[in-house]
TrEMBL record, chains A, B:
<keyword id="KW-0520">NAD</keyword>
<dbReference type="GO" id="GO:0003700">
    <property type="term" value="F:DNA-binding transcription factor activity"/>
</dbReference>
<comment type="similarity">
    <text>Belongs to the transcriptional regulatory Rex family.</text>
</comment>
<feature type="domain" description="CoA-binding">
    <location>
        <begin position="79"/>
        <end position="179"/>
    </location>
</feature>
<feature type="binding site">
    <location>
        <begin position="89"/>
        <end position="94"/>
    </location>
    <ligand>
        <name>NAD(+)</name>
    </ligand>
</feature>
<dbReference type="GO" id="GO:0003677">
    <property type="term" value="F:DNA binding"/>
</dbReference>
<keyword id="KW-0238">DNA-binding</keyword>
<keyword id="KW-0963">Cytoplasm</keyword>
<dbReference type="InterPro" id="IPR003781">
    <property type="entry name" value="CoA-bd"/>
</dbReference>
<dbReference type="InterPro" id="IPR009718">
    <property type="entry name" value="Rex_DNA-bd_C_dom"/>
</dbReference>
<dbReference type="InterPro" id="IPR036388">
    <property type="entry name" value="WH-like_DNA-bd_sf"/>
</dbReference>
<comment type="subunit">
    <text>Homodimer.</text>
</comment>
<protein>
    <recommendedName>
        <fullName>Redox-sensing transcriptional repressor Rex</fullName>
    </recommendedName>
</protein>
<keyword id="KW-0805">Transcription regulation</keyword>
<comment type="function">
    <text>Modulates transcription in response to changes in cellular NADH/NAD(+) redox state.</text>
</comment>
<dbReference type="Pfam" id="PF02629">
    <property type="entry name" value="CoA_binding"/>
</dbReference>
<dbReference type="GO" id="GO:0045892">
    <property type="term" value="P:negative regulation of DNA-templated transcription"/>
</dbReference>
Length: 206, 206
């Protein structure tokens, strides 16, 4: 049976993954838990404990094999099963996310964007077309998309969420600073930027 | 003595704050813990426990006074002491963050943006000017800024962080998908978008 991995561990593993990408780009083949720990300013015993949760972590006498460890993280966290998604809201944040190629490396495959602005509809961003929002229900069905990254302004966030729910969207990654009221069976992940800032701010003032 | 509030509680309190803003806009004066709990799909005893950490939470016989509860969250989480900051990187994400007026409500005061692109330098975004990065050390000193939101591409993230550290920046809110190597005395908060996605993705697949 698969062991449940905690949120904090998932978070650390993705940071290790970033570091491994940097090492690969620099053509370094081996990495130690101490190197990872120093970059993240955490304890190296924590790093070893996290890595012990992975299968085939590439441990050797001199450290870990960078490529193997990277693959082990990807397999464990399920990057191998990409999820298709739409971005709803083609403002700056929506465009930034559409350009964020890193997503695909992590199993998030953004297929298209949606907006109401006629100036945006028809534009192509990073090979993804911007469609009018009215096309969403049909395209979601055709493309089998159940996940949306919601980047609309707060003032229309709930109205848009209602529309998405009616279009059979099941998973909403909510980047708008608004708490959405959705029925059972729909999952919302609040990308609470202000919450994150306040952690940071609280941490540095205390 | 001030009680230490956990990261998860801070996160929930900021979501309650979002809900309170919505209630204020709808001219509703009273809110119950059950209403908050239902919107967030959490237990109402958790909501009451979190609110019990606040001073002057505005509790009455029929619920909480919306305005008082909002103020209590702001006071407890220190929104009242704004922090000045710069955005480094005037790409889509930098622009999205510059336009995000909500920040100021939470005590984050973005004063200016910086970039190397001559086409961006001199432009004004949401009343904030984009300066050439070479002006940063001088302006940081003049304006007393110690915090930066880093939104540059991954390929230049470390080089830019080194420059910021040399410019006496002490706090880096890192939006680039890169782990930064900084000396002691500099705090980095990794806005690990992929980590957040993987929590969500892991949660919905298990």
């Amino acid at each position: 049976m698969k062991e449940k991995i905690s949120d904090k561990t998932i978070n650390r593993l993705t940071l290790y993954h970033c570091i491994l990408n940097d090492f690969i780009e620099s053509n370094i083949n081996t990495i130690t838990s101490v190197q990872i720990a120093n970059l993240l300013k955490i304890d190296d015993s924590q790093v070893r404990k996290d890595i012990s949760l992975l299968q085939n972590s590439g441990k050797s006498r001199v450290g870990y094999c960078v490529a193997d460890l990277k693959k082990a993280i990807e397999t464990t966290l399920g990057f191998a099963h990409p999820k298709n998604a739409f971005i709803v809201g083609a403002g700056n944040l929506g465009l930034a996310l559409a350009k964020y190629d890193n997503f695909l490396n992590y199993g998030l495959n953004v297929l298209a964007l949606f907006d109401v602005d006629p100036l945006k509809v028809g534009v192509t961003i990073n090979k993804k077309e911007v469609y009018h929002i009215s096309k969403l229900p049909e395209l979601a069905k055709q493309m089998g998309v159940q996940m949306v990254l919601l980047t609309v302004p707060r003032s229309v966030a709930q109205k848009t969420a209602d529309f998405l729910v009616n279009s059979n969207i099941k998973y909403i990654w909510n980047f708008s600073p608004s708490v959405l009221d959705v029925p059972k069976g729909v999952e919302v992940w609040n990308e609470n930027l202000m919450g994150n800032f306040l952690h940071f701010s609280y941490k540095i003032s205390n």
